[in-house]
Design a protein that fits this description.
2 domains; Tumour Suppressor Smad4; alpha+beta; nine-stranded antiparallel β-sheet; four-stranded parallel β-sheet; about 35% strand; Rossmann fold; about 300 residues; about 25% helix; single chain
Length: about 300
């Protein structure tokens, strides 16, 4: 069987990848490897693959890298008509690998490549983000975080990173220490409208981000909807209530409470008084006025039939 692997250049030195490719080649598989060197290479290598015949769902293209690499290849593939997009597999090589983990894709090189070779693709949705200030379009397949969540770095205390996971008993002190101010804006969707201060928001096509935090417990990759969760601005005196609401959300409940709100929608439009930092599957962006649309059945993704990210 034939497979084209686009490999993040920072991981090309790993001996287990070379050993896996060599072993599969000895078994008769045609494993072709391309390695990135600099920014823009994923898009260039996808274009090269397309020109060389990877232009239909019966061809398999695997991206080897982390969540950011997956976002890059998805954005590149979305530049082609739907019928010309190859089936996409994932070789997880990042730090968190949230998307691959949620989809139960194996995390070792040989097992992930064997998984891509032996499983068929299922049509999944992709979310298109349009900057309405300049009409520039971006794409992601997993999760967008916005506001305070997108500012989190490796140096940020773990309590903050775990906020939606329920570990936020020191959240109020952390927010005050960082002198954080909520983002003021408007949100419109078919069923909900909101204006006011927002601390953190998540737009979920997949289920988890941030190193294992489940931000979209009810999200599926093939339901034509994105799952939204917002945490509104709240006073320090309301912290215990916010934690209770966040806990209910984490248990899979749809929440329409005082501070934590969640719902499902095919599109969402946001407008804010200042640029809101966002993180699209690991790639930072800033939006002032943007629209987010689910593109149904946009990509054939190689996953198992029992994948928990697909509708049962």
């Amino acid at each position: 069987m034939e497979l084209r692997l686009i490999l993040n250049g920072k991981k090309a030195h790993l001996p287990e990848i070379r050993e896996a490719v060599q072993q599969l080649r000895k078994q008769g598989h045609n494993i072709q490897v391309r390695v990135t060197w600099e920014g823009g290479d994923v898009e260039r290598l996808v274009a090269e693959a397309h020109q060389q015949g990877w232009s239909s769902p019966d061809k398999k293209l695997v991206i080897g890298g982390g969540d950011g690499s997956v976002q890059e290849v998805v954005s590149a593939l979305m530049q082609y008509p739907a019928e010309q997009r190859p089936s996409l597999g994932v070789l997880p090589l990042g730090t968190a690998n949230d998307f691959a983990t949620a989809c139960q894709i194996p995390d070792t090189a040989l097992a992930a490549l064997e998984f891509a070779l032996s499983n068929s693709a299922k049509a999944v949705d992709v979310i298109q983000a349009t900057d309405l200030e300049n009409q520039q379009k971006f794409y992601f397949m997993n999760v967008l975080t916005a506001g305070f969540g997108a500012q989190i770095t490796a140096e940020t205390p773990v309590e903050l990173k775990n906020f939606l996971g329920g570990g936020a008993y020191t959240l109020s002190g952390i927010v005050q220490a960082l002198n954080f101010k909520p983002y003021i804006g408007e949100i419109n969707s078919p069923d909900k409208q909101f204006s006011g201060g927002i601390i953190i928001g998540a737009l979920c096509n997949g289920k988890q981000a941030g190193g294992g935090q489940v931000l979209g417990p009810n999200a599926y990759l093939n339901d034509g909807l994105m799952d939204i969760c917002l945490v509104r601005d709240f006073p320090a005196t309301a912290l215990s209530q916010v934690l209770q609401e966040a806990s209910a959300f984490g248990n899979g409940e749809q929440i329409n409470a005082d501070y934590v709100v969640s719902w499902q929608t095919p599109w969402l439009e946001t407008k804010s008084e200042q640029f809101i930092p966002t993180n699209l599957d690991g790639e930072p962006h800033k939006f002032n006025h943007a629209r987010f649309d689910v593109v149904p059945n946009a990509l054939p993704l190689i996953v198992a039939g029992s994948c928990p990210c697909l509708m049962p």
